[in-house]
Amino acid sequence: MTSAMGNRNVKIAIFLAGLFVVAILPLFFNESSGFIDDCTLALAYICMALGLNIIVGFAGLLDLGYVAFFAIGAYTMGWFASGFYADADIHLFVGEFASSIPGIHVNFLIVLVIAAALTTLAGIIIGLPTLRLRGDYIAIVTLAFGEIIHRIAINGDEVKIAEGFPLTNGRQGITPVDKIDLPFLEPFTSLNLRPWYWVALALALFVLFVNFRLRDSRLGRAWIALREDEVAAISMGIPAVKTKLLAYGTGAAFGGMSGAFLASYLNTVNADQFAFSFSIFVLAMVILGGLGSIWGGGRGRGRADVHQLPPHPRRAQRRAEQGRARIRPLRAVVRHLRLPARDHDGPQTRRPDTGAAPPDGARTGHRRGRHRARPGGAMTDSSPDLILDARDVSKVFGGLTAVGGVDFAIPRGGIVSLIGPNGAGKTTFFNMLTGLYKPTTGAILFDGAPITGGRPDKIMARGIARTFQNIRLFGTMSARENVMVGEHARMRAGLFGSVLRTPRVRREERHVSDKAAEELAYVGLAANTFDQLAINLAYGDQRRVEIARALASDPKLLLLDEPTAGMNPQESDELTALMHRLRDERGLTILLIEHDMKVVMGVSEYITVLDHGEKIAEGLPDEVRADNRVIEAYLGKGAMHE
Amino acid sequence: MSMLVLDDIKTYYGNIQALKGISLTVEPGECVTLIGSNGAGKSTTLRSISGLTPPRTGSILFEGQEIARMAPQDIVSLGISQSPEGRRCFPRMTVAENLDMGAYLRRDTDVEQDRDRVYELFPRLEERSKQKAGTMSGGEQQMLAIGRALMAKPKLLLLDEPSMGIAPILVERIYETIAEINKQGTTILLVEQNANFALGVSHRAYVLETGKVALSDESAKLRENPDVQKAYLGA
Questions:
Q1: What's chain B's average pLDDT?
Q2: Beta-carbon neighbour count of residue A157 at 10 Å?
């Protein structure tokens, strides 16, 4: 611990020393030297790259139209700080020179805030419909958005907001834009570039700071979780659209601020600045610097600018040695460039959930199902000691019935199992309980209230947590962070709280981190592995982390999908004991899918057997074990003596 | 000459050392199994052999040739194929296409015949041959991963937990199949949590603990070993 602290102090010292050098750098060059000019531009681009890093790197939303935010920010500066609207006569906190000329002239800092607000608004407007889509669609829609803004900029001189107030000045550009003129400081000029450099540096440091603060916050974890595995993330209670929107809006704001600064610095806002290639330029900075890596934005700037030096051989070597962990972030990009991968744990449709329209026939079936349930009063007379009551639930994919009309109930505080041959529909059934699939027919009551077809994050918040058959941890996060994601829904820290790291947020972080460690210890993970990357853990340990992550939300009902897969008999025994403890110590109800008969028979109070989507048997373990249909379809003769 | 010789290999994930010097041999025609707890390094040993996570130091000889620094695809072309842990099927390809991918490097003409053999083994795969792999259940994907590895017609087959997520009735089938494939001349290195089955089908076994070989013997003898029984057989 002390060495880690020492390490941290060394890092801070190096950072401060570096910062000092960067800060005094302009003093070694001529006031108007080209070098300072380059550095100032570089810093402004770094701001944008760090903003885009939040969108692409953290949240995994491939934005190909980031230039739009640059444009909106720059035009904000053009509108509010130039002589462009000469008919207006507004002067707000500006210096003598700007006060003396007509037009709208607002103080630089105020315009910076307006630019951030307007770009965030634009981000939300474009994001709200788009962010429901996935990877490749987001890329195309944002690309179009960037292009549309570009076209509007070019032709905006024809668009009159009011007489004498065109939207843009087209290719001629809005020139000149006011230079920075702040109280107590000399007005900035193009003869002395040092003040510009320092303002750009301050902006870059601000964005850097925000990046760092957000990376290790509730929100940062949620973004990375969505990037790593959206299905798992929403199952952990993260509202996908809202969370992505926050990333998009925040990233957009930095693009806007940076754009506003550049407009003032370059003294012009010209439609030709906002071509598609600029989006690619900023994206290249982010990717070459390493997605999601904060320092990368800055490093990438160097790279993109030096016309893409090949990666240093030693760096490539190091990457290879570090194995999967380091390479992983790149996969976030790759993932965007292909159709969303669907596997059995996930939904079949593009959208993470429920909005997927079932086939026509299925839809009518759905209505019929509800209809049937109501007249009989089935929705209301649910016995109070049932924590879960699913009636006549089925799921049809295309023409294939994965689950057909299954009734299933779980008594509160019970441990029940769902078994059956591979492909019998067990996981599909799980997915309906957790909201990943919308049942084609039937109704599901949880704790007496209907949850049929509800959103996964909402169902999670009501108290159903799950693990996945095909482990779905967030690979680039530590075991502890994975569990902390599980607590997302119970935490309150928001965007500003996380950036400011208020005492309340700090307390919450500490509390959640401690609780995560507690849960990890509870499921039997060795303490020295808590802070290792999840993908570097052994398979069985990954399963434990998944269980801890599910427990972190303090569920009432825990769904375990083949938890002992990849565990040896001794570990399976430990897990059996853990399930008993969860029930006895925490009062949890457990639903288990499992193929290890020793575990199933050892832990279950009641067993339901599915085959081809239908219930073929149910009962006490001994009854099920002796059932001929079950032996024939599932157990085999050999399992009799287990 | 031994088919496969691992000499003191050390493999890392980042700076975490997963293998702390593993040495083992596999003779031609043998079925050898690795057992051990989670994190003991069983899967990492297989990944080191197949080149997915190459060892940092140590040597791996396959039929006398050093493969520790080779790329995975070159190792496959020498005759080693792996059914990886966690399935890793190609989700948007059909079952038949997945199987064809297993035979990607083959030049001979028996591919059809081998595919029929896989279908015979797992009739469920034939039923679903036109279905996308990603839409199948976990257990079905496991069958596909094994089938795909078999399609490479390897000299040495690396199986990582073939029984994971498989219904009991099929676990037996899979082990019968493994014995059968081995009898037909394919050398097998098997990693399995289900030590009962693994020791039943294999000739020899190595017990791994925290990245080292703790014990090795003939499988029949290990089954009688009280420590092994207690730790891995759930006795």
A1: 89
A2: 16
Nearest CA-CA distance, residue A566 and chain B, Å: 6
Question: What is the rounded radius of gyration, in angstroms, for the C-alpha atoms of chain B?
Answer: 17
Residue of A nearest to B11 (CA): A321
Token pair in block for residue A314 = 């030693």
* B213 within domain boundaries: yes
Query: Do B197 and B188 meet the contact criterion of CB atoms below 8 Å apart?
Result: no
* A386-397: strand order across its sheet: A400-411, A386-397, A441-446, A449-450
- Residue B85 domain flag: no
pLDDT interval class at B174 (50, 70, 90) = confident
- Burial class of B183 by CB neighbour count within 10 A (0 to 12, 13 to 18, 19+): exposed
Cβ distance of A538 and B141 shorter than 8 Å? no
Residue ending a domain, among A250, A275, A300, is A275
Q: Is residue A482 part of a domain?
A: yes
Considering only CA atoms, give the Rg of chain A: 29
Q: Which residues of A touch B231 (CB under 8 A)?
A: 568, 570
Whether A575 and A401 have beta carbons less than 8 Å apart is answered as no
Minimal CA separation from B169 to chain A, in Å = 4
pLDDT tens for residues B205-228?
A: 999 998 999 999 999 999 999 888
pLDDT tens per residue, range B43-68: 999 999 999 999 999 999 999 999 99
Interchain pair A540, B232: CB under 8 A: no
Q: Reply yes or no on whether the pLDDT at B86 is more than 60.
A: yes
Mean pLDDT in residue range A202-220:
92
Count of A–B CB contacts within 8 Å? 148
Task: Determine which of A570, A630, A642 to mutate to test the interface with B (most B C-beta atoms within 10 Å).
Answer: A570
Q: What percent of chain A has pLDDT over 90?
A: 56
Tokens matching residue A562: 């083949």
Please work out, in degrees rounded to the nearest 5, the angle formed at the alpha carbon of residue A476 by the alpha carbons of A473 and A477: 70
Which among A323, A539, A595 has CB closest to B13? A323
- Which of A247-261, A305-319, B197-211 shows the lowest per-residue confidence on average (mean pLDDT)? A305-319
- What's the pLDDT score for residue B195? 84
**Shortest alpha-carbon distance between residue B50 and chain A (Å):** 14
Distance to chain A for B119, nearest Cα, Å: 16
- What pLDDT shows up at residue B166? 84
Return left, alpha or beta for A316; rule: phi > 0 is left, psi -120 to 50 is alpha, else beta.
alpha
Mutation for B interface: A400, A422, A536, most B CBs within 10 A: A422
For residue A492, name the pLDDT band (cuts at 50, 70, 90). Answer: confident
The nearest alpha carbon in chain B to A419 belongs to B167
Residue A291: its pLDDT value, please? Answer: 67
Would strands A415-419 and A589-593 be described as parallel, antiparallel, or unpaired? parallel
- pLDDT tier at A372 (50, 70, 90 boundaries)? very low
Structural domain harbouring B233: 1-79+157-166+188-235
Give the pLDDT mean for A304-319: 38
Least confident of A88-92, A299-303, A356-360, B163-167: A356-360
Rounded Cα distance between A547 and A524, Å, is 10
Residue A217 inside a domain? The answer is: yes
Query: The domain containing residue A81 runs over which residues?
Result: 30-275
Question: Using the beta-carbon criterion (under 8 Å), do A323 and B14 form an inter-chain contact?
Answer: yes
Q: How many domains does chain B have?
A: 1
Residue B162 lies in a domain: yes
DSSP character at residue B109? S
d(CA A577, nearest CA chain B) in Å: 14
